[in-house]
Design goal:
It is a single chain. This protein folds into three domains: 19-189, Rossmann fold (3-Layer(aba) Sandwich), CATH 3.40.50; 194-267, Helicase, Ruva Protein, domain 3, CATH 1.10.8; 281-343, Arc Repressor Mutant, subunit A. It is 44% helix and 10% strand. It has helices at residues 19-23, 27-39, 56-66, 87-92, 109-112, 128-140, 166-171, 177-183, 200-214, 224-232, 238-252, 256-263, 282-304, 309-316, 320-329, and strands at 46-49, 74-78, 117-121, 142-143, 152-153, 157-162, 186-189, 332-335, 340-343. Strands 2-3-6-1-7 form a five-stranded parallel beta sheet. The chain binds adenosine-5'-triphosphate (ATP) and magnesium ion. Residues 17, 21-22, 50, 52-58, 163, 203, 206-207, 239-240, 243 line the site of adenosine-5'-triphosphate.
Length: 345
């Protein structure tokens, strides 16, 4: 990739990688981009979901800078980081005398986000009582500071993020269903890095340049072999883990510094889920495992080849016909209009 533009800052200290790096080439991120284009300008709540380290905060910041409220503040509230007893006053502020030590009035983060964006990170961690207060804010833009007599009104765009499954949280009674409907007007689901392996080389190169400059350590682009290893790795910590790896590469100045981590595989892939007390058919299980393993490899290569079947067949060293047959067996549907393929939903 050509040298990327530096991380952009909008004056509020919002660091955002260039958009070609954020979205890359993967189909999954293309869907995210289209959604973001449509919703950034409208004052509706957005819920961003995705595994840890997939870039939820980056996307929230990007929505803010693309919104009509970009000249206003971007206020992040990291819900689990605020001690339980302080969350309410931190969020909604307090009036003089609200509690011992409240010698004056203090605005909360909701108020400081006036005419800007309020980013509620890890929203699932918010306790039920505060979820009710947040519901009121989302319904009519009103809230009452701790110890306050009257409601206050604000004009803020609310973006929430979580790496939890909110449907499960609702089932367990830990998250209010009515609040879920309010925050989930638009839902942006970020793919894991495993689902966008084609983007790994560009993200790596971008981060390498950023950290080479930051630490003043010139580095060479990673070798094709190392990038291949990266595309095979399972990235439990997603882009955050990739970023840490690149930092280590830049500081230590050697590809060997990241080899051990990339060679690690999830232990579960070597422990098949089989009934150990009854009898098993070794032949049947082995055939099934082979088929699953094969489709995983095929999908990985297809993703890396941006879902182009011809290039994937060539990369896999099998005929195009053989690939089509295997895709059919694996239940991968073809989108005839473009000649591309997508996994079945
Ligand atoms: N496309 C990208 N290119 C380069 N760096 C990225 C990209 N997306 C995210 N990052 C970087 O990866 C790290 C994780 O991103 P971010 O904090 O937005 O993820 P997150 O989903 O909010 O993570 P968590 O769930 O752990 O809070 C950050 O340091 C961010 O700058
Ligand atoms: Mg985050």
């Amino acid at each position: 990739m050509a040298r990327s533009a530096p991380i952009r800052s909008n004056g509020d200290g919002l660091s955002i990688p260039p958009e070609q790096v954020i979205f890359g080439l993967s189909e999954t991120m293309c869907v995210v981009r289209q959604k973001l284009d449509k919703v950034a300008g409208a004052n509706i709540p957005i819920l961003i979901q995705g595994e840890s380290g997939t870039g939820k905060e980056i996307i929230a910041k990007l929505i803010h800078v693309r919104s009509p409220w970009s000249s206003g503040p971007f206020v992040k509230v990291n819900c689990p980081a605020i001690p339980g007893t302080l969350v309410e006053s931190e969020l909604f502020g307090y009036e003089k005398g609200a509690f011992t030590g409240a010698n004056g009035t203090k605005p909360g983060r909701v108020e400081s986000a006036q005419n800007g964006t309020l980013f509620l990170d890890e929203i699932a961690e918010l306790e039920l009582g505060l979820q009710a207060k947040l519901l009121q804010l989302l319904q009519d833009g009103q809230f009452c500071p701790v110890g306050g007599q009257e409601d206050k009104k604000v004009d803020v765009r609310v973006i929430c993020a979580t790496n939890r499954n909110l449907s499960e949280e609702i089932e367990q009674g830990a998250f209010r269903q009515d609040l879920f409907y309010r925050i989930n007007v638009v839902n942006i689901q970020l793919p894991s890095l495993r689902e966008r392996v084609a983007d790994i080389p560009d993200i790596c190169d971008f981060l390498r340049q950023v950290y080479s400059e930051k630490f003043n350590r010139p580095t060479r682009p990673l070798s094709a072999r190392k990038l291949e290893m990266m595309q095979r790795y399972h990235w439990p910590g997603n882009i955050r883990e990739l970023e840490n790896l690149i930092k280590r590469y830049v500081i230590l100045g050697s590809e060997d510094a990241i080899t051990v981590e990339l060679s690690r595989t999830p232990s579960s892939s070597f422990v098949p889920d089989i009934p150990i007390n009854g009898s098993v058919s070794l032949k049947k299980l082995t055939r099934q495992a082979m088929r699953e393993f094969e489709s995983k490899i095929i999908l990985r290569i297809l993703q890396a080849q941006n879902w182009n079947r011809k290039r994937a067949a060539s990369a896999l060293n099998i005929s195009y016909r053989a690939l089509l047959y295997k895709l059919k067996e694996a239940g991968v549907s073809a989108r005839r209009t473009t000649g591309d393929v997508q996994p079945k939903e």
